[in-house]
Amino acid sequence: MDNFKQQQIETCKRYIINESLFGQQYDQLLEMMQEMNVELKIDFNNCYLILAGIEKRFYNSKLNLNRENYLDIFAAVKYLLVSLEQTYEFEKEMSAVNYDSSKLIAVMITPKTSKELPIPIIADQIQKKLQQQFIEARQVKHPYLSSITLYSEPIVSYAHFQSAFKQLRNSHRLVFYKMRPCSMQASMFIKDRQNVKLIDLIPMVQKLQQNLLDGKLENMRFIVHEIMLSLKRSMDVILTYDIISELKKMLLILNLQFRLDFEERINEVLRLEQYCAIEEFEASLFNLLLTFCQFKTEHKAAISPLIINTIQYVNRHYQESISLYEIADAMNVSASYLSRVFNAEMGVSLPYFINELRIRKAKHLLCETNLKIGEIALQCGMQNVQYFCMKFKQLTAMRPQEYRQINQK
């Protein structure tokens, strides 16, 4: 067979494998195979699937690799499999899995003889080759990023083929919790999952907040690690985002309490998609908490529960037309008492604090949106645009339009 014909068949096979992975019905697949090439035969009744690589977002942002690098890596795995084919007597089909933020390689292995294939050995060789290629292409080893290779159980039908790929893909999505160089059966990758509930972790977040306020760094480190260990054992994405939500609420309250300007940094640190592994997230979160501790030591007076609750209330209702009397009523104290205590503990009046918060939110909207000034004023709880502009200039020394012109991305 000439080279052109061989390349044509390989291209058709890759297309067929892609279609089969992504849920194409079997009768339609047969029609496509017949239309493409009469010589094209793929047996889905006696094979294995292997899924290897890393997520696309890490491939691009963490390793700074491009499409040419990916093609080189794909070719390196292909050449490896050519040599393994001869040793272990199997046929292979390969496919680039470029969807759902992936940059993975799928390999279909079909035995040529009745001998049992050493799939764990083949998968391990693929994993090592990929890891080597990533390091060589980037010339640096990322501390939290590894190639994970998962393989299926023996596949006995086309329907089983698709369900096996689904299991591989779902398991590979969870490598965030088990990021380390490894190759294993997909079912074994998640066999140690534990049932962890949000109600069990919320007290740990509360302890973390108290230890941060007390400046107990080692306790903080231990609690953060325990939270991450629980998430790691659960391998539960929804639970992880629920905990991030709890951490965000805690940090935003502290941000207001210490009158910091860390909201943007909090949002960035808690953006889970940027991390390769839960250990990387843990390190970044603890560094943020250390920064809070440093500013906390500069905060002269302790903040009472009354003022913490007041700050929480303001943070929830700043978009509304709230008054000192309304807040005092919600706190079950008199307006004069609340005003006096707030001024003593925070160093500013409550109305000033509310306006400062509103202007801080307005600055974000001016930079990140194209909303009109009047719309921003309303979203920040100020019905009167002229009053909003006056307060904005008092606190920033410039008009809203000027601030947007200078700072808008």
Strand order of the largest sheet: 2-3-1-4-5
Number of helices: 19
Number of strands: 5
The CATH class name of the largest domain reads Alpha Beta
CATH homologous superfamily assignment of the largest domain = Reverse transcriptase/Diguanylate cyclase domain
Q: How many domains make up the 3D coordinates?
A: 3
Helix proportion range: 55-70%
Q: Could you tell me the mean pLDDT?
A: 85
Gyration radius (Cα, Å) is: 29 Å
Please describe the biggest sheet, giving its number of strands, its sense, and whether it closes into a barrel: 5 strands, mixed
The helix/strand class is alpha+beta
- How much of the sequence lies in strands comes to 5-15%
Question: Judging from the principal axes of the Cα atoms, what is the shape?
Answer: elongated
Give the termini distance in whole angstroms: 57 Å
Keywords:
409 residues; alpha+beta; Alpha-Beta Plaits; Arc Repressor Mutant, subunit A; 3 domains; DNA-binding transcription factor activity
Topology (SSEs and partners):
Layout: H1 3-21, H2 26-36, E1 48-55, H3 56-61, H4 67-88, E2 90-97, E3 102-111, H5 119-138, E4 148-151, H6 158-172, E5 182-185, H7 186-189, H8 198-214, H9 217-234, H10 237-257, H11 263-269, H12 278-298, H13 305-317, H14 324-331, H15 335-346, H16 350-368, H17 373-379, H18 385-396, H19 400-407
Parallel strand pairs: 4-5
Antiparallel strand pairs: 1-3, 1-4, 2-3
Helix pairs in contact: 1-2, 4-5, 8-9, 8-10, 9-12, 13-14, 14-15
Keywords: DNA-binding, Transcription, Transcription regulation
Domain HTH araC/xylS-type: 308-406
Protein name: Helix-turn-helix domain-containing protein
